[in-house]
């Protein structure tokens, strides 16, 4: 099968030609999709009627080991019975919209900050795959930022100054910025992880910033100076020319590369309108034998 890509933004993001991902098992098609991820970093697939089991199966077939040590697992039991299937919704196990003061809702609001999935663990997340199951009658978009293009646009001396810097990523930090509170046991289960500030994509050699709201501090730098650096880089990387805003349609399926993009949810009236999406995230581990 020949896969076609239609670019959606200046630097990245593409809509993929009609394809049923549930039926994609052959190596050639999977490799075309992986090459598309290397090129565009965000791929949009329309009309993908996944069941939970089918989504989990495709995620593993496409990119291997699934991330299951999610922050959501620290707060509540997964209503699907599988921590690898992250519940990106505003409803509880009974299907009712969560009350405004529910801890799951309050934690989920933090997704409105620019972030990368699973940067607070080691190994971090590689690809995230989000399936639209129930959409509200109002816009509830997701924005993406291309950190490769942002890195390329930095002055040469700035790029040189970032080499070798490491950053501690902590989801406790990003949640507490918005006033969310963790108890001692929850903190112990979410220690965070340290990653380079600049990463190289092995398959292409492209350089990319590695930023997120989870980026708490630059290791071995004075705290105020390091946080100011991260703030300035975040402002740079999320300029309009580096972003793509996705308007969800029913049964959309979007895959993005957490190593080279950030994303954030845009607000909607989540106390009135029901919204349900399912996310699978793979870990950035070698794939010795791709399908």
3D structure, described in words:
With 291 residues, this protein is an alpha+beta fold. It has helices at 27-40, 52-63, 72-75, 103-108, 147-152, 156-162, 171-176, 184-189, 223-237; strands at 5-7, 14-16, 42-45, 86-89, 125-134, 142-146, 166-169, 193-196, 198-200, 207-209, 215-218, 243-246, 253-257, 261-265, 276-283. The chain has one domain (5-283): 4-Layer Sandwich (Double-stranded beta-helix), CATH 3.60.130.10. Helices cover 26% and strands 24% of the residues. Strand 1 (5-7) and strand 2 form a beta hairpin. The radius of gyration is 18 Å and the shape is globular.
Write a concise synopsis of the structure shown.
Helix content is 26%, strand content 24%. The protein is α+β, with helices and mostly antiparallel strands.
């Amino acid at each position: 099968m020949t896969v076609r890509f239609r670019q959606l933004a200046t630097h990245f993001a593409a809509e993929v030609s009609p394809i049923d991902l549930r039926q994609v098992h052959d190596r050639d098609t999977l490799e075309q999709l992986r090459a598309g991820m290397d090129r565009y970093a965000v791929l949009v697939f329309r009309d993908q009627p996944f069941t939970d089991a089918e989504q989990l199966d495709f995620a593993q077939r496409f990119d291997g080991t699934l991330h299951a040590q999610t922050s959501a697992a620290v707060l509540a039991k997964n209503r699907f019975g599988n921590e690898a299937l992250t519940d990106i919704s505003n409803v509880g196990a009974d299907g009712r919209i969560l009350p405004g003061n529910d801890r799951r809702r309050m934690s989920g609001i933090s997704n409105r900050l620019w972030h990368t999935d699973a940067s607070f663990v080691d190994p971090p997340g590689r690809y995230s795959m989000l399936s639209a199951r129930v959409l509200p009658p109002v816009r509830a978009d997701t924005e993406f930022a291309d950190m490769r293009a942002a890195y390329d646009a930095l002055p040469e001396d700035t790029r040189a100054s970032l080499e070798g810097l490491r950053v501690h990523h902590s989801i406790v930090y990003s949640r507490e910025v918005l006033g969310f509170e963790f108890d001692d046991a929850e903190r112990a289960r979410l220690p965070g992880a340290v990653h380079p500030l600049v990463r190289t994509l092995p398959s292409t050699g492209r350089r990319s910033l590695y930023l997120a709201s989870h980026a708490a501090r630059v290791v071995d730098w004075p705290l105020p100076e390091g946080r100011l650096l991260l703030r300035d880089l975040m402002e740079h990387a999320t300029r309009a020319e580096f972003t793509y805003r996705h308007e969800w349609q029913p049964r959309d399926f979007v895959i993005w590369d957490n190593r080279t993009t950030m994303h954030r949810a845009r607000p909607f009236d989540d106390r009135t309108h029901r919204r349900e999406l399912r996310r699978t995230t793979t870990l950035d581990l070698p794939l010795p034998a791709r399908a």
